[in-house]
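Here is one chain, start to finish.
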Amino acid sequence: MLALEKLIRQIRSALGLQPRDDAVEVALPPPATLATLAAETDALIKREVSDGCTLDVETRIKEIRRIILADEVLYEGTEAEQQSLDWLWVSMLRLGLFAELLHLVRRFGLPLRPEVKTFAEFCERQYQVNHQLGEVYRARHPDTDIFTMGCIVWGDEYVGNFLKYNLRSMLSPGNLPALSAQGRIVMSIVTDAAGEARMRAAAVFRELARYAEIEFTTIPPEVIGILRRGHLVQHFYILYGMLDHCSIYFAQGARSHLFMIPVDAIVADGSLNNMANYRREGYECCGGGNIVAETETFLSALDQRFGDEGPIRISTEELATLAVEHAHHYFRSQVLASENVDFGKHPRELFWPVNGGVEIHSVFIHPLFTTASGIAKYIRKHFANVDYGMIPRMFSSPVTIKVMDPSQAYVNNFTAAGRRYETTGRPFTVEDFLSCHDYTYPVQKGLFDQTQRLPCRLNGWTMCSDVTQDVRTIIARFGVAEEMRQPVGSP
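Its structure:
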């Protein structure tokens, strides 16, 4: 870019459009440093979140990539530069500059955090391996739909819950068995060696093999050791987001559709097959809100109803009602009801009590199902957070994103009762909700007026506001253009 600007000035001078001396006197910008890169990438993230993934943003990212790979960055090892590194690596992963980050680290021997360096080097190798495995799988099955089921699970508790609850719900008749009639299924599981051994030995895993082929990505000891420290590791969720991409690379190599069902979730019967069918209506991605339940009592209730063996076949209404009966404070803090005087501080969805259940409006949704055409658009990846950053990198408009109809598809999460989330200490206000979405992409704000009517028996909550007016007010304050909110097939 600098060379081009200099050439333009020389041409203008030769044509008499500016004095030759002026061209000499114009000071060129200083070379890039780690500090200026950190500032630039942080500013680009903010600009992208505000405006979306525009051509201007993409052009600037392309220029940053060129500067790094052309070795035009200076590094002198000063304390200020080293301090900026901890800021820079996060920004680069968010912008999708993974290879460029590793280039800088190796060129200068940068003092990257050991756990980050370990993760980055593992993922660099594994992304390539998984993409190639996907290509091989597609070559073996060139003329059929392929559905990749991506999940990350390790540790006794999570592997146990995956086998006993999550997988059994996916084996209900309307889920994996029905989906297998639409094409081939690959279960892409990221786990450690102990987790793989335990899964292979489980009876339910043998049932899974009737409908899906299994592809393991094995986490080495040095990586699993970091994961086991959990939230004690700074930026744990960013490292987790990097691992989430292992299955994404397989799906892209296989040119397959991709399910990303959380392992701490129950899938209502029929959901997987119906999510896949949304692609026949022109949608490329789907997801939605849910009533998060408390692990301890919710799973005990499932045990009483379904025992230890066989598929967990449960309807949306039964599942949501059970979740309400064992609701986690995360859900309770986000209900717009007279009884809730301590609203959640970081809500990604809002819940209104209505006749027959709950009405949900979500801002950003986890991409539970994405078509092969959608995954192909995910070129500049948001390595730091799939939940937050994957959809904006695939879609500039929400028109092909489906907020699921719970009567067709519903996935209910659960988490430990002791896991607490920040609250405001006061009832819901529109201002509080808007302020926590300053860093929400336009395409995500455009999803908010899509309605989920979740049928369930909801007791003990009194509606305190008008849902239609609340949604209209929030949409207007978001400033989302009408064309950003038209679903597929709208006039």
